[in-house]
């Protein structure tokens, strides 16, 4: 298999990010992205045969970079869902504070395949923390699929519903934990701990970290 040009790959992802930030996912074609890069569609498909592969790559890199940043902030003894809650709140606080990133997320999560890719990436990150959990990985993924489906609909309609990032993040974590039979005091304790931590984090530093570590991300 031929070695793929890393610079060309970054040019494709940079163009795709800009286009998905300005248009809905279904309004952008591979031909549109190829034209923006200045290459033909056949060469583009040497790197990504389908449009969904581009979005999966971008979501994967964005989420994995965010996970790495969060690992520096969480405590080693934190339980699984404290990590999920903290990540969820910081990530969407960052999204709420950057218009271009917000538009990209809005464009991509409207598509079911993109949302599936999001869930798969988060599940891969969390798998290593499930060893001592009282539920199975399958139960965790089921809860994530259900909760993220509802949360993303709130995110998509947040302006018309007048819901800020904190509200739908709280709804998200409460839904996951309730599905896994956490009791109300424990759920509220996790959310309160998250609020204390995220209030102390400079969201601009988080966004700068993501931009510095993702070549195609221009905020």
| Share of residues in helices | over 70%
Terminal CA distance reads 34 Å
Question: Would you tell me the structural class of the helices and strands?
Answer: mainly alpha
Elements, N to C (H/E)? HHHHHHHHHHHH
| Helix count, DSSP H or I runs of 4 or more residues | 12
> What is the count of distinct domains?
2
As a whole number of angstroms, the C-alpha radius of gyration is 18 Å
The average pLDDT score comes to 88
General form: globular
Protein model, in words:
By secondary structure, this protein is mostly helical. Helices cover 74% and strands 0% of the residues. The protein contains twelve helices and no strands. The protein has helices spanning 6-22, 30-37, 41-47, 51-71, 80-96, 99-109, 112-126, 137-156, 158-161, 165-179, 184-199, 203-213. Helix 10 (165-179) runs antiparallel to helix 11. The longest helix has 21 residues, at 51-71. The mean pLDDT is 88.
What structural keywords apply?
globular, mainly alpha, Arc Repressor Mutant, subunit A, 2 domains, single chain, 0% strand, 219 residues
Write the layout of secondary structure elements.
Elements: H1 6-22, H2 30-37, H3 41-47, H4 51-71, H5 80-96, H6 99-109, H7 112-126, H8 137-156, H9 158-161, H10 165-179, H11 184-199, H12 203-213
Quick summary:
By secondary structure, the chain is mostly helical.
